[in-house]
Design brief:
The complex is a heterodimer of chains A (265) and B (340). Chain A has ten helices and ten strands. Chain A is of the alpha/beta class and 265 residues long. Chain A has one domain: P-loop containing nucleotide triphosphate hydrolases (Rossmann fold, 3-Layer(aba) Sandwich), CATH 3.40.50. In chain A, helix 5 packs parallel to helix 6. The longest helix of chain A is centred in the C-terminal third of the chain and has 18 residues. Chain B folds into two domains: 284 residues, ABC transporter involved in vitamin B12 uptake, BtuC; 45 residues. A two-stranded antiparallel ribbon of chain B has the order 1-2. The chains are: A alpha/beta (265), B mainly alpha (340).
């Protein structure tokens, strides 16, 4: 479904701030795979996500979606196949527009936008049904402006908007990191439910090791622009946080240090 | 007095189309577009030139709107493709249009390439064409008779202009309301609201921005074309400060009528434009003020319209808190009595 081949990216090349963001990344996701990505700050996780979404172009390497080379395809064309949820709960929705208008925008993701009215009766019914699955009572607030919703509600809505057109690939970029623990848990459960329902091929970046272990069938660990550890489905089931810490120490010869990683344990 | 106010309404309803254009850029796209000062004249110049050259006023007016659309699209290209700052793209286009407008009007004479103004005193226009038909209906007589009975001395020449402009402006309003609810319209609104989000839902924000700017300046040029026909002249300087007038209309309208829905806001913008004209006319009735003070008065009106909503919100919050405190104090007092 998704294939990254030899992806390289350097920021600020030939300056004192030069940074190798991605160093020869190879990764393949089969249809229905749910891969969680962990790694400390600056490991290249977000850069990799931006490569896949098309916000950044790799210096070297090739990206394939569904067997099609999309390396040069601009972001807005690639998002036909890709659903995304960002870390910032404000980023995934349009605040001055209503809930149903936001859903209508998401609804026309994989078709050409025309002069058809965005929210008609039939769609409104569908939006209502979809919102009911969130159990946040949003289905009764279709005409509320999204800017009035809480961060958790907005993130739940973003998640629904990213998934309800069944994208080929779902990218989740630390989408629970900016929420308080109880809201984060709600979004985590919702993620699990929505991904399982449509067997979406998913790539999720997280700082929370427990979340990385609990969700998905595969796990990868990144450090300094490289994938340093891949845990396959058969081993992932019995994985513990301590195993990951030990593995990291073993590979890098140093202790895993990241405030946020430790805090999230 | 009545004549002054009547004239303001006539003008206001024509300028309202320009204000709707400004609303699209400033509010919907969140793009401070200064092209308006130039594209307004482009509309007037195109219409005046074509009418002088003998084209039908309706066709001339449509071409004027298209010229404005093209100008707005170029501003959009400068911003999205050449990555020039939004304010600067508009200013560059505005200054470029000054020369282009001279050239357009220059097409009417053989002796020079540029021309600063075109009089339309004896030309046909949309309004003369309509008033012929209107005059036969006898509505003017009925209305003016009513006014004379009410004691108004100077009755208007014709009610036709107000009538046709209300129809045209409201038709544009309803089409705009509808458009902003279509899939493309929603995507344009989201572009102004959260570009990152709409890109992640497979919309090309560059194209949408260009389209929005084109539509906006198309309306502005249409308004310019109508003002030229209404005032019977086009002048290269008639667009100076137009953007401020447009903004004034949007801000005044929003402050008075609110922005709850799109339909409500476009309604507010239209009446904002009319109210602005009326306030201006009333201000000019003051002995001390001169027509040269118009721009200063405009600036003051905008400042007042910007300050009042803030003050009102503050006042409301204050009285709300005062009310709650009083209630609380009463409750505490009663509690004290009961325990005593």
């Amino acid at each position: 479904m998704l294939k990254l081949e030899g992806i390289n990216k350097i920021f600020n090349e030939a300056t004192p701030d030069e940074k190798i963001a991605l160093d020869n990344i190879h990764l393949e996701l089969k249809t229905g795979d749910f891969v969680t990505v962990i790694g400390s700050n600056g490991a290249g996780k977000s850069t990799m996500m931006n490569m896949i979404s098309g916000a950044l172009t790799p210096d070297l390497g090739k990206i394939e979606i569904n067997g099609k080379d999309v390396t040069r395809l601009p972001e807005h064309k690639r998002s036909h196949f890709i659903g995304r949820v960002f870390q910032d709960p404000m980023a995934g929705t349009a605040p001055t527009m209503t809930i149903e208008e936001n859903l209508a925008i998401a609804y026309s993701r994989n078709q050409k936008r025309t002069l058809r009215i965005g929210v008609d009766k039939k769609r409104r019914e569908f939006f209502k049904e979809s919102l009911e699955t969130l159990h946040l009572n949003l289905e009764n607030r279709l005409n509320a402006k999204v800017g009035l919703l809480s961060g958790g509600e907005r993130q739940a809505l973003s998640l629904l908007m990213a998934t309800f057109t069944k994208p080929n690939i779902l990218l989740l970029d630390e989408h629970t990191a900016a929420l308080d623990p109880s809201r984060a848990e709600l979004i985590t459960n919702l993620t699990k439910q929505l991904v399982e329902k449509d067997k979406l091929t998913t790539l999720m970046v997280t700082h929370n090791m427990q979340q990385a272990i609990d969700l998905g069938n595969r796990l990868i660990m990144m450090d300094k622009g490289q994938i340093i550890l891949e845990v396959e489905p058969s081993l992932k089931k019995d994985l513990q946080i301590d195993d990951l810490m030990l593995q990291f120490q073993h590979i890098r010869g140093e202790k895993m240090v990241s405030d946020r990683t430790l805090l999230s344990v | 007095m009545f004549t002054a106010i009547f004239g303001s309404v006539e003008q206001g309803i024509i300028y309202a189309i320009m204000a709707l254009g400004v609303y699209i850029t400033f509010r919907v796209l969140d793009f401070p577009d200064l092209t308006v000062d130039g594209s307004f004249v482009t509309g007037a110049a195109t219409a005046a030139t074509m009418i002088t050259l003998g084209y039908n006023p309706i066709i001339s007016t449509i071409c004027a709107a298209l010229a404005g659309f093209a100008a707005g699209s170029i501003t959009g290209l400068l911003h999205t493709k050449a990555k020039i700052n939004s304010l600067l793209s508009g200013i560059l286009m505005m200054i470029a249009l000054y020369s282009i407008n001279l050239r357009i009007m220059g097409l009417t004479i053989d002796t020079a390439v540029g021309r600063p103004n075109i009089p339309l005193a004896n030309s046909d226009s949309l309004f003369t064409a309509f008033s012929e038909f209107w005059g036969k209906l006898g509505i003017d007589k009925a209305f003016n008779g009513m006014l004379s009975n009410m004691g108004v001395e100077h009755v208007p020449n014709t009610w036709g202009t107000v009538f046709i402009m209300f129809i045209l402006t409201f038709a544009i309003k309803f089409v705009l309301d509808w458009f902003l609810k279509t899939e493309i319209g929603l995507a344009i609104r989201a572009t102004g609201d959260n570009g990152k989000m709409i890109r992640s839902f497979s919309a090309n924000t560059d194209t949408l921005t260009i389209l929005g700017l084109g539509l906006s300046n198309g309306l502005v040029a249409l308004s310019g074309a109508l003002i030229a026909q209404y005032g019977k002249f086009a002048d290269v300087g008639m667009g100076i400060g137009m953007i401020v007038i447009g903004l004034a209309s949007v801000i005044i309208g929003e402050a008075i009528f609110g922005t709850k829905t799109i339909a409500r806001t476009t309604f507010a913008v239209i009446f904002g434009a009319i109210i602005y004209r009326i306030v201006l006319a009333l201000a000019l009735q003051v002995e001390f003020l001169d027509t040269g003070d118009m721009k200063l008065i405009t600036a003051v009106i905008v400042v007042i319209a910007l300050v009042i909503p803030t003050l009102r919100a503050k006042q409301k919050e204050k009285s709300r808190i005062a009310k709650r405190r009083a209630e609380h104090a009463r409750a505490v007092k009663q509690e004290g009595k009961r325990s005593a």
